[in-house]
């Protein structure tokens, strides 16, 4: 029996008792109507012996019908209780069946990533941290399975546009278990503004900005799915129903295939700290942060190297977020990577995850 057949039969078991109860109620209502009619006839024609006896016989018949109906309803309730117990016992089986494909795919991903160094598992999310060493840099990966819409959000670096704070400060202020810096920025005097299109709580923070110079928008929609791409028209982005997101450059992977890296980003800088927001085929998210600029002997990663690593991990879509001195990863309240500036940079946007 396949999953569809199983669910169909399960629904039949659940619905059948209610159908029986409905029929019983209809019959009981009908019997009450008969009793009322008989009572009326009896009061009007009590002196008529024939009418009286006919009414008495009808009353007896309706009383018997009411008893049968009552017994049927009680039996239906009993059957309902039995069915309810059966359904309750089947729920774990159904859940296990529905989770089976996810478990298989997740196991395959986990085998590629190795053993996690730390895990956060709650009713909102499951986040696993991995430490990696590559030829020219150290990497930190966080695989995240979202279980609730309230498990993730993006925030500005302050109470108003133009303000900034470090990722650690943002995590502490909002009570996030995992945090990473988000989009790029542009400075104007003492203010630091998000670069390009930025959306918070479904609203455009500083209007829609058509994609230019390979600038993309990436974020999550109302179903907690990763969305992103190049958008020339606001209507294109609106169709995806973004809940939040930020902008930077370039797109690394789409549908599991490498995208062409713009010439400028192949050499300027060639190696650097990187921050990547990505997903797997089962919609789990992946945060990939690297050290660089010779921090602890690390020279940093090229975008081509990042692409190859992500393909090996079976990543589907990947977006290069703001890196360099902005690269910041927090896990369980602790800063995980080594900021290349020697200290954390204050930034205008942060991606937060809550347990």
From TrEMBL:
Annotated signal peptide: none
Bilayer-spanning residue ranges: 6-28
One Pfam family in the UniProt entry: NAGPA
Keyword set includes Nucleus: no
Record key words, sorted: Glycosidase, Hydrolase, Membrane, Transmembrane, Transmembrane helix
Domain spans labelled Phosphodiester glycosidase: 175-354
GO molecular function (one): hydrolase activity, acting on glycosyl bonds
Entry protein name: Phosphodiester glycosidase family protein
């Amino acid at each position: 029996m396949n999953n569809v057949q199983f669910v169909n039969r399960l629904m039949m078991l659940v619905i059948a008792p209610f159908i029986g109860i409905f029929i019983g109620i209809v019959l009981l209502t009908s019997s009450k109507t008969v009793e009322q009619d008989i009572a009326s006839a009896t009061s009007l024609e009590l002196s008529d012996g024939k009418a009286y006896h006919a009414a008495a016989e009808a009353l007896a018949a309706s009383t018997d019908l009411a008893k049968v109906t009552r017994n049927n309803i009680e039996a239906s309730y009993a059957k309902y209780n039995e069915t309810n117990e059966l359904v309750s016992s089947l729920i774990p089986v159904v859940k296990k069946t529905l989770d089976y494909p996810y478990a298989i795919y997740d196991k395959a991903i986990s085998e590629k990533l190795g053993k996690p160094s730390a895990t956060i598992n709650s009713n909102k999310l499951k986040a696993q941290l991995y430490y990696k060493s590559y030829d020219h840099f150290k990497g930190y990966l966080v695989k995240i399975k979202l279980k609730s819409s309230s498990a993730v959000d993006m925030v500005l670096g302050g109470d108003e546009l133009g303000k900034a704070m470090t990722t650690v400060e943002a995590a502490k202020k909002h009570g996030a278990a995992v945090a990473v810096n988000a989009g790029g920025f542009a400075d104007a005097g003492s203010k630091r503004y998000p670069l390009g299109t930025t959306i918070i709580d479904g609203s455009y923070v500083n209007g829609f900005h058509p994609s230019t110079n390979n600038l993309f928008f990436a974020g999550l929609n109302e179903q907690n799915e990763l969305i992103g791409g190049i958008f020339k028209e606001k209507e294109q982005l609106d169709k995806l129903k973004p809940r939040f997101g930020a902008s930077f450059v370039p797109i690394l992977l789409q549908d599991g295939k490498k995208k062409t890296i713009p010439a400028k980003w192949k050499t300027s800088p060639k190696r650097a700290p990187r921050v990547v927001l990505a997903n797997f085929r089962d919609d789990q998210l992946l945060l990939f942060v690297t050290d660089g600029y010779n921090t602890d002997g690390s020279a940093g990663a090229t975008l081509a190297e990042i692409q190859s690593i992500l393909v090996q991990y079976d990543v589907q879509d990947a977006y290069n977020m703001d890196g360099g001195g902005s690269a910041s990863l927090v896990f369980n309240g602790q800063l995980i990577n080594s900021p290349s500036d020697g200290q954390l940079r204050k930034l205008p946007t942060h991606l937060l995850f809550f347990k």
